[in-house]
Amino acid sequence: MSNLVQDLIEHLNLERLEENLFRGDSRDIGGKSVFGGQVLGQALLAAQQTVEGREAHSLHAYFLRPGNPRESITYDVDRIRDGRSFATRRVVAAQSGRAIFNMSVSFQIAEEGFEHQSSIPDVPPPEELLSIAEWRRQTMKHIPESLQDILTRDRPIELRPVQPIDVLHPDLRPPRQQVWLKAAGNLPDAPAIHKALLAYASDFTLLGTALLPHGVTHFMPRVQAASLDHAMWFHRPFRMDEWLLYDMDSPSACGGRGLGRGSIYSRDGRLIASVAQEGVIRLRREGPPSA
């Protein structure tokens, strides 16, 4: 396991304070607030620690307030229901006594049933593509020095876009993109870890899909982009240390909000997860001219 991946797993793991109360560390990955994927992954692991014999099959979350990346987060799990096939948990994440996030998670025993799925898009394999970090290093001279480390550093989740986007000088594109992703190292055989890491990674590029037709990105000073909610459905078993294709589109943007949808496929074409997210996307108002 690489040091970057081991560090991320340790970061997502939680300290148990009471039977249903957990605490996790925050981390600054270059934004002004806690990365939403971190809270998703930690909340999912908190809920999983209160369930036996079932795995998460869906989650529905709301981001209520920006999190402080310099402050730890507590996760309070409410054991809503334990049925014969399904179990439901509600998780509230808080900092300084104020809720910043809540999530409902449903767990299910393993079952057989009807099967069908959508087909994986026809795109180049990951071996023919550069990672986001590699691609940006090739265009380093166009990146301001203040952003070079954030934009070009290696990360525990490797992302290889099918059509890379210049986040500082984007062109106009249809609201669809595909990215290959996987953990940058081998992982233990623990499905809960793989699902937490996929939840973490699913928040990286989805909302940006809604900005593609408008020729802007969240790296531009006047653009405000922040997740409002996030939903995931885990369909089939998968491994995060194997390549997965994240196929994303945005059917709508209006009222200062954009909607993103994602389908995640294993390399052999199995649909392993679906994602939906709405977020704030708007231009900040320019201040009055200085006297």
From TrEMBL:
Q: What are the boundaries of the signal sequence?
A: none
EC numbers, comma separated: 3.1.2.20
GO molecular-function terms, A-Z: fatty acyl-CoA hydrolase activity
Matching entries from CDD domains are given as: Thioesterase_II_repeat1, Thioesterase_II_repeat2
Q: Does the keyword Lipid metabolism apply?
A: yes
GO cellular component annotations, sorted alphabetically? cytosol
The Gene Ontology biological process annotation of the record reads: acyl-CoA metabolic process; fatty acid catabolic process
Which top class of enzyme applies to this chain? hydrolase
Q: Which reaction does it catalyse?
A: a fatty acyl-CoA + H2O = a fatty acid + CoA + H(+)
Specify the Acyl-CoA thioesterase-like N-terminal HotDog domain's residue ranges. Answer: 31-108
Going by the UniProt record, its keywords in alphabetical order are: Hydrolase, Lipid metabolism
Q: Acyl-CoA thioesterase 2 C-terminal domain location, by residue?
A: 153-280
Any Pfam family matching the protein: 4HBT_3
What the entry lists under PANTHER family is as follows:
ACYL-COA THIOESTERASE, ACYL-COENZYME A THIOESTERASE 8
- UniProt similarity note: Belongs to the C/M/P thioester hydrolase family.
Q: How does it assemble?
A: Homotetramer.
Q: What is this protein called?
A: Acyl-CoA thioesterase 2
Q: What is the lineage of its organism?
A: Bacteria, Pseudomonadati, Thermodesulfobacteriota, Desulfuromonadia, Desulfuromonadales
